[in-house]
Amino acid sequence: MTIATFPPEPKPEQGWGRYFGFCTDAKVIGIQYIVTAFFFFLIGGLLAMVIRGELITPQSDLVDRAVYNGIYTMHGTIMLFLFTFPVLNGLNNLLIPTMIGAPDMAFPRLNAVAFWLVPIFGFLLIASFFVPGGPAYSGWWSYPPVSIQNPAGNLINGQGMWITAVALSGVSSIMGAINFVTTILRMRAPGMTFFRMPVFCWTALAAQSLQLIGLPALTGGAIMLLMDLTFGTSFYRAEGGGDPVLYQHFFWFYSHPAVYVIILPVFGIFSELFPVYSRKPLFGYVYVALASFIIVGLGLIVWVHHMFPSGVAQWMRNLFMVTTMLIAVPTGVKVFAWLGTLWGGKLRLTTPMLFCLGGLFNFVFAGITGIMLATVPVDIHVSNTYFVVGHFHYVIYGAAVMGIFAAIYHWFPKFIGRMPYEGLGKLHFLLTFIGANLNFLPMHPLGLMGMPRRVSSYDPEFTFWNVVASLGAFLLGVSIIPFLLNMLSAWIRGPKATHNPWNAIGLEWLLPSPPPEDNFGEDVPTVISRPYGYGLGKPLVEHQDEIERKLELQEASA
Ligand code: HEM
Ligand SMILES: [Cu+2]
User: Is pLDDT at 280 greater than 50 in this prediction?
Assistant: First the structure.
């Protein structure tokens, strides 16, 4: 490589318009995914406020019972299919190419199509709430026979539109997964062997492999559900020789691995950020990377733990209880590796670091209740109660959403080119951490006391913990305000960011902020060592000093 040819000068900004068009640049698509996902997060969050507003009193006195069924169905579906998966696809689009030194995704047009399906199925899903005959009402699982009753008898009905939207989201995710997996396997920088690849890319590869393996089951199962609902077939109709429990197998064969599709990239975020803010290498890098694929393997053979009360055979319960508990081992390897990284480190409590620490704390708590739920006798006792609702909100909000916030605060300077405000960031963290624990912790004693989920009125003995949970939820609702204020004001007029404001090690930090359209262009650096070499004094790539000096010159002259 000739020393003279440094990374090309960044092209001038092309304005906000590019975020509203059919653009094939992964960095634009990444931001389109993230902004769209947070739009739906606000809708899902508003529905959660209505749910908690209803549950602050034992009587059903805020919304009609049928509407309440529609609200929690939409809340769960929107939060998972329109917020969590799209926001993670957004992070994948921003981080995978820049972390491995690729100019873009392997299939840029397919990438754009996969994104534009999101607003389309999002519109369809939300419209399903308002059609005559009422919204989908049988929860985010939509188990038959309840979901195929079609009480209003309309051909076009809320449940049918819900199923179609979920099937379309499967198509969008499969398109995304093909792109992410191909890009990671085929487009890494010279010298970046697998055991020199950032852990975020390992976890993305693992998560997207699960998407490719599991999604066909969900999509196929959903299409059969739609046929039973619309054309009267009997895949799941017992009276027609079908089996409603078959749908549960199709649904959970995907939807349990789906929780790893969510949490694996968040594990990747923890593994990227803890070394930066501890100034220490990642403890046990190889084991952390490989544990991601042990989670993939085990994650595909645990789904029946969602069906312990569904009349499955006892041998099956025992088998899936054991496989579910085994998942604690690779997960534990990661948790201890993060503790080993933090231990004795020079901790910098920036906003991204605080969200990671809060997320790790909540994840360990959620993991413990997960083991309790894996135990057949306990699960039979608390299945369909608030103990389960508390458990998965600790994982999804307590760990995953907090990890996602950490990632946004950490990589915002890289892709927007401006710094978010630390004061607002820390306020956001504080309100989120307190709000989430106040909201979701009381759900556990409520479940142990026997409070069922999916009810809008309840026995007055459950009032105290419900009031605490609702106040926590409202605090969580408020917590999003400093976040939105921070993101908008920093995006418009935040202090300019340098190429490496956190002094982090990684290929993305050897690019200008924001990176040019094709990242390194022709001049992809050669990787010569493992990531996370904090305190080891070893460069990550050849000619690293020259590359960094060039970036500093550019920033000085800008
Ligand atoms: C402000 C934050 C949130 C609050 C207050 C909240 C509250 C609730 C409550 C009370 C329920 C139970 C409703 C019932 O059974 O009657 C529920 C269900 C659910 N929530 Fe949340 N939630 C929040 C955030 C999230 C997030 C971020 C996700 C996912 C990313 C999520 C996913 C779900 C799912 C999948 C269900 C199950 C819906 C069903 O039963 O079909 N929630 N939520
Ligand atoms: Cu599960």
Answer: yes
pLDDT, position 348: 98
Query: How remote is the CA of residue 72 from the centroid of ligand 1, in Å?
Result: 7
For ligand 2, a single-atom ion, the residues with CB < 5 A are: 256
CA distance 540 to 536: 11
Structure token digits, residue 125: 């899903």
Q: Which residues contact 96 (CB under 8 A, 6 or more apart)?
A: 26, 102, 105, 180, 183, 184, 201, 204
Q: How do residues 313-343 score in pLDDT, each as one tens digit?
A: 999 999 999 999 999 999 999 999 999 999 9
Ligand 1 touching residue 162 (CB < 6 A): no
Judge whether residue 13 has pLDDT over 60.
no
The owner of tokens 């990632």 is 407
Whole-number Å distance between alpha carbons of 532 and 269: 13
Candidates 1.20.210.10, 3.40.50.360, 3.30.360.10, 1.10.3720.10; correct CATH number of 24-557? 1.20.210.10
Contact between 411 and 480 under an 8 Å Cβ cutoff? The reply is no
* Amino acid in position 68: Y
Query: Looking at ligand 1, which atom is closest to the CA of residue 49?
Result: 5
362-401: per-residue pLDDT in tens?
999 999 999 999 999 999 999 999 999 999 999 999 999 9
Domain residue ranges in the chain: 24-557
pTM: 0.95
The one-letter amino acid code at 540 reads: L
Tell me how far apart the alpha carbons of residues 500 and 488 are, in angstroms, rounded to a whole number.
21
Radius of gyration for the alpha carbons in the chain, expressed in angstroms and rounded: 24
Q: In this predicted structure, what is the pLDDT of residue 132?
A: 79
Backbone φ/ψ region at 537: left (φ over 0), alpha (ψ -120 to 50), beta: left
Residue with tokens 């393996």: 213
User: d(Cα 558, Cα 396) in Å, to the nearest integer?
Assistant: 41
